[in-house]
Design goal:
Blueprint lengths: L1 H26 L15 H38 L5 H21 L7 H43 L7 H6 L1
Helix pairs in contact: 2-3, 2-4
């Protein structure tokens, strides 16, 4: 029992000494961060965690890029005047967005990854461009629709209820 307590005390003293070395080095300007070293024989666990994180990063990046691709495809189609199936684009964007949101919820710890942050910023820019083009398209459709509605009303009217404007036109 005393031997175990002595061993534990020595391990604690060593940990304090290691911390003091790191603190001393940081004070000297080296600014080294403390590093967790693997316990002998546990290197497989560390490598496994890195591989899992790497897979998480790749999966999230793939989801972001798929969403960006759909958004970019729709934007190009709108700006070049191609015939567009809005239902298809809407469904594809919704599925991609759902996948992205689900992956982000599960892997919130990846939000600090530089590559992911950069991809999200590029996605944000593409979404803003897409919104702008869609808004412009919507405004044009609304204007054309109002012209058509006015033409239909004018064609159906016999002038009975239009008052002075109809008499001036005769």
């Amino acid at each position: 029992m005393q031997a175990q307590e002595g061993t534990a005390a020595m391990a604690m003293d060593q940990a304090v000494a290691d911390t003091e070395v790191t603190t001393t080095e940081a004070a000297a300007g080296d600014a080294l961060l403390p590093v967790l070293l693997p316990i002998a024989g546990s290197e497989m666990v560390v490598d496994g965690m890195a591989a899992a994180k790497s897979d998480d990063v790749r999966g999230l990046l793939a989801a972001i890029r798929r969403l960006a691709s759909v958004v970019e495809e729709e934007t190009v189609a709108l700006t070049t005047g191609q015939k567009i199936d809005f239902d298809d684009f809407s469904a594809r964007k919704s599925r991609s967005m759902l996948e992205f949101v689900r992956l982000m919820r599960v892997r919130m710890h990846l939000g600090g990854e530089v590559e992911i942050t950069e991809e999200i910023q590029r996605l944000r820019e593409k979404l803003e461009r897409n919104r702008s083009v869609l808004e412009m398209h919507y405004d044009a459709v609304r204007e054309v629709a109002s012209i058509i509605v006015k033409a239909i009303k004018d064609a159906e009217s016999d002038g009975t209820y239009t008052g002075r404007a109809a008499q001036d036109g005769k």
